[in-house]
Write a structure and sequence with these properties.
single chain, alpha/beta, UDP-N-acetylmuramoyl-L-alanine:D-glutamate ligase, Protein-Tyrosine Phosphatase, Chain A, 9-stranded mixed beta sheet, 6-stranded mixed beta sheet
Length: 446
């Protein structure tokens, strides 16, 4: 038999990694402490891959040559500690996919906010230009499964800090770091530096012919960037100053320079509105230019991009009140961006599982734009404490239907109801998609 690899976690990334490892001749075993979804279970059975669910059997796991750990499993889990103490190498699914990607190119995107939109936009521009590419990682398919079942010459990958943590050799040709704000610190011993180091891993293995796109207006990125030995070509983006390379916005026009090439277009042509989306669009346009996509193709794609489901998604306008689903906002920073782009009075739906939120970040925007707050979650105490003195209308609800009805009750014609929770969804919903879908269903039933 080949090298023995144990896959911890039997969801999208775990099953994708198992299929690729089996195809490459590894002796594969999958272990999940909870029960598997039917389609993942069937996928493993069809591929004749051994697995267990509802437990982690140490005798089967601790004899591995290598372990692929799914990104959702924290370092402080008992079985992970035992694997580490035995000195068994732990890698991520992204690392395994990279190992077998052949000569394909990779554009990889990470960051606390904006990475999903930026990834989807680069994919949209690439597809519009006729490139043969795949959308992988945190959105789309598992990277490893794509490499196993339908390899492409170009992968556009959204990569979280958890997926970067266990990379060794992973090296994207184009790396994008959208920004860094405190998020998921519970997984990094509440140490911001550890989280920052994790994000910068995206550029750690890059060489002189690779490219690193980052936001020159992001305070944390700029404070820490020079502490990492980045060897690739650095292309900053900015709205605050003109740059000799990268991209900047001045007087409503975006300018891009990636060497000899120079492109410009009006920000009024961008399909995505709001300042945060101008950053996302700049990063995507720089990446597209590096992929040698023609200017007219980039311009056309950027003008016709549809926003993503659960991310500033227009649901409906009911009797003059617009409803926007931003369920993917699971931290305060995301909600800041959502509020920043609003031009009408807002009824804000907030709440869920609080990850140590600091609501003072959105204090000024709430004062300026929000008429009423609807709390959606099992514990709304912190929201009342943060905004009780600012907003006179705060109501508590514990399901999507009640939240929509309460918001509609407080709204007048010309207002917008924005569900941008700033929290995780696990108290009342399966995940942020379930929360967003229940919100949309309730709006459509008004």
């Amino acid at each position: 038999m080949g090298k023995r690899i144990v896959i911890l976690g039997g969801s999208e990334s775990g099953v994708g990694a198992a299929l690729l490892a089996k195809q490459q001749g590894y002796d594969v075993f999958v272990s999940d402490s909870s029960s598997l979804k039917d389609d993942y279970r069937n996928g493993l059975r069809n591929a004749e891959i051994a697995f267990e669910e509802g437990r982690h059997s140490e005798d089967l796991i601790l004899h591995a040559d290598e372990v692929m750990k799914s990104p959702g499993i924290p370092e402080n889990t008992g079985i992970v500690k035992k694997i580490r103490s035995k000195g068994i190498d732990i890698i991520s699914e992204v690392e395994l996919a990279y190992r077998f990607k052949g000569n394909s190119k990779i554009v990889a995107i990470t960051g606390s906010n904006g990475k999903t939109t930026t990834t989807a936009l680069i994919y949209h521009v690439s597809k519009t230009a006729g490139l043969d590419c795949a959308l992988v990682g945190n959105i789309g398919y598992s990277f490893a499964k794509q490499v196993a079942e339908d390899p492409k010459p170009l992968y556009i990958a959204e990569i979280s800090s958890f997926q970067l943590d266990d990379t060794r050799h992973f090296k994207p040709d184009i790396a994008i770091l959208t920004n860094i704000t405190p998020d998921h610190l519970d997984r990094y011993d509440n140490q911001l530096e550890k989280y920052i180091s994790s994000k910068f891993r995206i550029a750690a293995n890059q060489q002189q012919n690779d490219y690193f796109i980052y936001c020159a207006d992001d305070e944390i990125t700029m404070k820490y960037k020079d502490k990492f030995n980045i060897r690739s070509n650095q292309l900053p983006i900015s709205m605050k100053r003109e740059l000799p390379n990268g991209a900047f916005i001045k007087d409503g026009d975006m300018y891009i320079r990636t060497g000899q090439d120079f492109t410009n277009m009006s920000v009024f042509d961008f399909a995505l509105k709001g300042k945060h989306n101008q950053y996302n669009t700049m990063a995507a346009c720089v990446a597209a230019t590096l992929l040698d996509i023609r200017k007219d193709k980039i311009r056309d794609a950027v003008q016709h991009f549809q926003s993503l489901e659960h991310r500033m998604e227009h649901v409906a306008t009911v009797r003059g009140v617009e409803f926007i689903n931003d369920s993917k906002s699971t931290n305060v920073n995301s909600t800041w961006y959502a509020l920043e782009s609003m031009t009408k009075p807002v009824i804000l739906i907030l709440g869920g599982v609080d990850k140590g939120n600091d609501y003072s970040l959105i204090d000024d925007l709430v004062k300026e734009k929000v008429k009423a707050i609807i709390c959606l979650g099992t514990d709304s105490r912190k929201i009342h404490e943060a905004f009780g003195n600012t907003i006179s209308l705060i109501a508590n609800t514990n399901n999507a239907g009640d939240a929509v009805h309460a918001a509609f009750h407080f709204a007048s014609k010309g207002d917008v109801v924005l569900m941008s929770p700033a929290c995780a969804s696990f108290d009342l919903f399966k995940n942020y998609e379930d929360r967003g879908n229940q919100f949309k269903k309730s709006v459509k039933e008004l």
